[in-house]
Write a structure and sequence with these properties.
There is one protein chain. This protein has about 200 residues and is an alpha+beta fold. About 35% of the residues lie in helices and about 30% in strands. It contains 4 helices and 10 strands. It has a 4-stranded mixed beta sheet with strand order 1-2-4-3, covered by helices on one side. Helix 2 runs parallel beside helix 3. It is globular, with a radius of gyration of 16 Å.
């Protein structure tokens, strides 16, 4: 089973997170940031990832530390759970619509961290949530997960829809990338013999 549990304790956040890459999309999320909880629930459901997250963060300051640190913890758990990447398909992509929004997501579980993020939000807030934190989350995640992730908004007028389509798209693309290719289940999907 490709499962990892991570604890991250700092002066700003205390996080317990468990990720199962071979799950069914079940999640229990309590970060103290309602919009992030909603996005992570969608990410887990569409990725068929079992995800449990609790976070006690300094949300009296703002949501930044919670969002960033949950992204760090999720990426760390992903890197541990995926291991040496033996047998995975490695690449995943989708163009995902949500109402007027259309998001392109392409990713490579490569061991190399890169975020290409081209999603302009028409508003600075979604409720109380700062839209700039969407990029901060994916930046924190990609840095610790060791993946290359491109997210591009092709269309969209509603900030909530844009963010939601992005989280769903990453979940779906990850599900494709981490799936085991049965014909090559004992191989590392790289001519180098290692993904770094």
């Amino acid at each position: 089973m490709r499962i990892s549990s991570v604890k991250r304790n700092t002066n700003e956040t205390k996080i317990n997170l468990t990720l199962n890459l071979d799950g069914t999309g079940v999640s229990e999320i309590a970060t103290g940031c309602g919009f992030l909880d909603h996005m992570l629930t969608l990410f887990a459901k569409h990725g068929h990832l079992d995800l449990s997250v609790t976070c006690q963060g300094d949300i009296e300051v703002d949501d930044h530390h919670t969002v960033e640190d949950v992204g760090i913890a999720l990426g760390t758990a992903f890197a541990e759970a995926i291991g040496d990447c033996r047998g995975i398909k490695r690449y995943g992509s989708i163009i995902l619509p949500m109402d007027e929004s259309l998001i392109l997501c392409a990713l490579d579980v490569s061991g190399r961290s890169y975020l290409g993020f081209d999603c302009v939000f028409p508003t600075e807030k979604i409720g109380a949530f700062d839209t700039e934190l969407v990029k901060e989350f994916w930046l924190a995640f990609t840095r610790t997960a060791g993946i290359t992730l491109h997210l591009r908004k092709l269309a969209g007028e509603n900030s909530h829809h844009i963010a939601e389509a992005g989280f769903k798209a990453v979940g779906r693309a990850l599900r494709e990338a981490v799936a085991i290719d049965e014909a090559y289940a004992d191989e590392i999907p790289s001519t180098k013999g290692v993904l770094v």
